[in-house]
Amino acid sequence: MTRWLVTGGAGFIGANFVRLLLRERQDAEVVNVDLLTYAGNLENLSDVEGDPRYAFVRGDVIDPAAWSDAVGRAPDVIVHFAAESHVDRSIDDAHPFLCTNVLGTQSMLDWTRKKGVPTFVQVGTDEVYGTLGPDDAKFVENSPIRPNSPYAASKASADLLVRAAAETHGLRTIITRCSNNYGPYQFPEKLLPLMITNAMEDRPLPVYGDGLQVRDWIHVEDHCRGVLAAAENGTAGEVYNFGADGEQTNMSMVHRVLDLLGKPRSLIRHVEDRKGHDRRYAMGFAYAREALGWEPQVGLHEGLSATVAWYRAHEEWWRRVKSGAYRDYYDLMYAARLAGDGAPGDGEHSGAR
Ligand SMILES: NC(=O)c1ccc[n+]([C@@H]2O[C@H](COP(=O)([O-])OP(=O)(O)OC[C@H]3O[C@@H](n4cnc5c(N)ncnc54)[C@H](O)[C@@H]3O)[C@@H](O)[C@H]2O)c1
Question: pLDDT tens digits, residue range 162-176?
Answer without folding.
Answer: 999 999 999 999 999
